[in-house]
Amino acid sequence: MTIPQSFIQELLTRVDVVDIVGRYVQLKKGGANFMGLCPFHGEKSPSFSVSPAKQFYHCFGCGKNGNAISFLMDHAGMGFVEAVQDLAQSVGLQVPDDDISPQEKERAAAARQKQATLNEVLEKAADAYRRHLRESQRAIGYFKGRGVSGAVAKRYGLGYAPEGWRSLASVFPSYDDPLLEESGLVIVNDEDGGKRYDRFRDRVMFPIRNVKGEYIGFGGRVLGDDKPKYLNSPETPVFHKGRELYGLFEARTPIREAGYALVTEGYMDVVALAQLGFPNAVATLGTACTPEHVQKLLRFTDAVVFSFDGDSAGRRAARKALDGALPHATDTRSIKFLFLPAEHDPDSFIREHGTDAFARHVERATPLSRFLVEAASEGCDLATAEGRAHMASNARPLWTALPDGVLKRQLLGELAELTQLNARDLSDLWGQAAARDGVRAAHHAPPQRQQPRPTADDAPSWDAPPDADGWQPHTESAGPAYDPGYGSYSNPGGYGGQNGHSSQSGYGGGKPPFRKGGDWKSGGGWKKRDKDTPWPPQPRLPRTPAMSRADHAARLLLSHMAFLEELTHDDHTILAAQPGAHGPLFAWLEAQFHEHGPLAWAVLRESLRDHECEELAVKVMTGSHAQTEGELHELRLELRDLLTRMQIEDIKEQQKVLVLQVAQDPSALERYRALAEKRKELEQIAPKTT
């Protein structure tokens, strides 16, 4: 079967290579990476590095490297499809199971072309709506009445769909074009002989753009009291309201500057908040907030504040937003819920109480942890055993949805206290409930793989007490046999512990234990090693050619894509101007960042398949030089120094040209002096630059 490349990229964003490798290799934290004994060649000291940032592994001894898929193929002996299916099952994804024929590839290409065409059709309609707005005093009066300035209207591309059934007929030469219906601009009444008419009529228009700035749909609001008050584009090949957020394209930079995203309930809330000093606002598109919405926002910030009206409808919307946010509420993220008085929306509240008062409300918004407890306790009388039991039942799915971490464990203690149980008892009860749920789905589980046992008579006993050097062996289950010919632990029956799953605390997941002061015997057992005996030398990687500054900058940005948002305009300019394939590579990387947010190198590698920049990117990310790691602060300084030096070199080249032009162009001297001042400032930042 052929699996679409888009699915491979999505899969690699969902899995964690550290978890996958950790099924087979005992890993220990070492700086920014995890280190272990290489499973691909025999070695005595760890030279196998796994990078959480890059989602890549690399052995400094044998040079083996790759992503989560290649690891399962090379180490576990899985085929490509089997490895993809294994990873997809672990994160709840369904692998496309139909082969892609040449005809289907052509259809996929045609679909991509149609999406681009639909974007163009919608953009043409948006231009027309903006022109109509300038001609409609009534529509302009509506926006002025809401306090919207011309500048904000221009920023959000606001428009007006005039009265009349077929106003778009003057915009598009062929009103019968099927693309007008497919884009959601025109409705076809099949019951009236296929009569066509505009979907949006006599409404102020709010164009919806994706994060790339492409037009994907519209929201329209009536000027009077007609119903429906708001009308959205239907679902189309380019518009899926469960994945898109209104105003995100315009709010990307303000979100980063403010440090948080403000999620509201409507188009007008976003526009009004931007007018009143909160341009970091976005809105869902007439639907409840979904996990996809939250995930998209978290590409731009680690802090999200949901703003809702304080009435019952607002509380219900907040409850749905809580469900969408829980899977993404890690220890390093801040998710809050802001409830305004029932008589106010954000616009009216700010106009009555001012921006400072609203900012204080944002700061004092309810944290996700507190709102989770409130949601679980709603309708429960905690003064009675029945009420506390009901609350615990409500809390279980909410608490379970949280990613493991300090926040989740703290909440367990708080919820246990409210139920008048200790945390262990509550955890046990919830575990039993989860087991009962699992029994009902047991017939869907994959076939179990028999776990092999050690074959050597003198294999170590993992139930033994600590050895003389103080190493405590694993105790849960026996591990796979050691294969001296392979130089690692073989696992022919499966890669996990009992039931084919990895063991978190035992050796059953095929993890070789770290041992101190010993060595493996050729027969597969353990023998004591003289502590003064040196480790055997490890093979060296071939010497790699020296890297240029552009290569070095590319490596840092491909490894840590989030650094892009810290670059200045001059930085982007100097990178885009690099000769050869470097300039296009930096431009491509910035486009990927704007569309998808920071991605790991493993995902970027898949996106580069057959791309003109693939060879360069693979070159700079291959070899021992590409595995250099350090503290993020130090790497940022390293990149800053590189870019400063690149700018200095560029100025030097410009000055050489200007010296030759001075005789014919006196103004060249002034430009030379201006560049000299700028160069002096840069050289103070990088004093060692020559």
Automatic annotation (TrEMBL):
SUPFAM superfamilies noted in UniProt: DNA primase core (SSF56731), Zinc beta-ribbon (SSF57783)
Chain ranges of the Toprim domain: 259-341
Coiled-coil region: none
Cellular component terms per the entry's GO annotation: cytoplasm; DNA-directed RNA polymerase complex; primosome complex
EC nos: 2.7.7.101
InterPro entries: DNA_primase_core_N_sf, DNA_primase_DnaB-bd, DNA_primase_DnaG, DNA_primase_Znf_CHC2, DnaG_bac, DNAG_N, DnaG_primase, TOPRIM_DnaG_bac
Enzyme class: transferase
Subunit structure: Monomer. Interacts with DnaB.
Protein name: DNA primase
